[in-house]
Every structure is written in structure tokens, then in C-alpha cells.
């Protein structure tokens, strides 16, 4: 009876339908997604949200004569999770420590590293920040950077040394 009401509200595009769906089935859908995503727990919430969106957008394709509503939404959750797994495992590396396998998302790791670097370099004046990025991240040679900034090579290295000292003071205080 409640499923019929949920379906009716969703078909009429009433928010009440999705709220009822979430109240009634969020635990079930979360467990289906969790089971099929495996160790990719970072994407669980995003996948569950996509499941609810897929149900909302595809409610017209539900046929009560062919399947129960509960089974239909579980199939959607299962295949969404499988698609997420395919998508994100192709973008991950695996790290095996003893008997445990860990999946490392390369894009997420890159973004976290960039945020950390940005936070570190924010302790420097803008000009020094540019020099650090060019030298340490972009790998541009010291003489080239020194020439671009009208610095002698010794002034360039002094600037790097002072910048490193300033970073150490800010980070380890």
C-alpha cells in the first residue's frame, strides 16, 4: 500500500514521494550499494544519491506486473553501484598491505595533495609562491627562474632557503 503511494507521488513529481522513498528504503538501498561497491566506501553516499535520482527519473518504466517495487529499486541500486565500481576502479591504484587491499583514487589523492601544497605555499609572499611552484612543482631550472625574476642565482637560492624556513616555522609552530 505504501509503495503504491510512493509511486503515485513520484509520478506526479511531488517531493513527498521521494521523502517517503527515503524514509522507507534508504537503509535497504544503502546496504545494496555498500555490498556492490566493496571497498570504494568514499563513493557510497554519492552513489545512493544517484540511485534516488534514477528512481525519480525512471519511475515511468516501473511495471508492477513484472516486479515488486522493492526489487525494482534494489536492481537500480545494484547496477548504479556496479557502474560506479567500474568507473572509479579504472581510476584507482591498489595497495596491498598484508592481507588487506586498499584502493587509492588517483584524482582524489592528487586533489588532496594540491590542497596541501596550496595551504603550505599560502604562507609565502606571492612572488616567492610563484618561484616555489616553478622550481619544486613544475621542475623549471633555477637559472631560468632567476633570470625571469631578475635575480642572481645566489639570491634565488637565498629566497628558496628563506621560504623553506618560513614554511617550517608556520607548519611546526
Structural summary, described in words:
This protein has 173 residues and is mainly alpha-helical. The chain is built from eight helices and two strands; from the N terminus they run H-H-H-H-E-E-H-H-H-H. It has helices at 2-11, 15-37, 44-58, 69-89, 106-121, 126-137, 142-148, 153-171, and strands at residues 92-97, 100-105. A two-stranded antiparallel sheet has the order 1-2. It is rod-shaped. The mean pLDDT is 82.
**Major beta sheet, strand line-up:** 1-2
User: Which band does the percent of strand residues land in?
Assistant: 5-15%
End-to-end span in angstroms? 63 Å
Overall pLDDT = 82
User: What structural category arises from helix and sheet content?
Assistant: mainly alpha
Radius of gyration, in angstroms, nearest whole number? 26 Å
Order of helices and strands: HHHHEEHHHH
Shape: rod-shaped
Q: What does the main sheet amount to?
A: 2 strands, antiparallel
The level of helicity is over 70%
Instruction: Report the total helices.
Output: 8
**Number of extended strands:** 2
Low-confidence stretches: none
Amino acid at each position: 500500500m505504501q509503495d503504491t503511494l510512493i509511486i503515485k507521488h513520484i509520478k506526479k513529481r511531488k517531493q513527498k514521494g521521494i521523502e517517503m522513498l527515503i524514509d522507507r528504503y534508504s537503509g535497504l538501498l544503502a546496504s545494496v550499494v555498500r555490498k556492490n561497491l566493496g571497498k570504494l566506501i568514499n563513493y557510497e553516499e554519492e552513489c545512493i544519491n544517484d540511485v534516488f535520482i534514477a528512481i525519480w527519473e525512471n519511475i515511468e518504466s516501473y511495471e508492477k506486473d513484472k516486479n515488486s517495487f522493492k526489487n525494482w529499486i534494489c536492481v537500480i541500486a545494484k547496477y548504479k553501484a556496479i557502474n560506479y565500481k567500474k568507473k572509479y576502479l579504472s581510476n584507482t591504484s591498489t595497495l596491498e598491505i598484508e592481507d588487506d587491499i586498499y584502493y587509492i583514487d588517483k584524482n582524489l589523492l592528487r586533489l588532496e595533495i594540491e590542497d596541501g601544497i596550496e595551504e603550505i605555499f599560502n604562507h609565502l609572499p606571492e612572488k616567492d609562491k610563484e618561484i616555489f611552484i616553478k622550481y619544486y612543482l613544475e621542475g623549471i631550472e633555477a637559472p631560468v627562474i632567476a633570470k625571469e625574476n631578475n635575480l642572481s642565482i645566489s639570491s634565488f637560492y637565498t629566497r628558496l632557503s628563506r621560504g623553506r624556513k618560513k614554511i617550517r616555522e608556520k607548519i611546526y609552530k
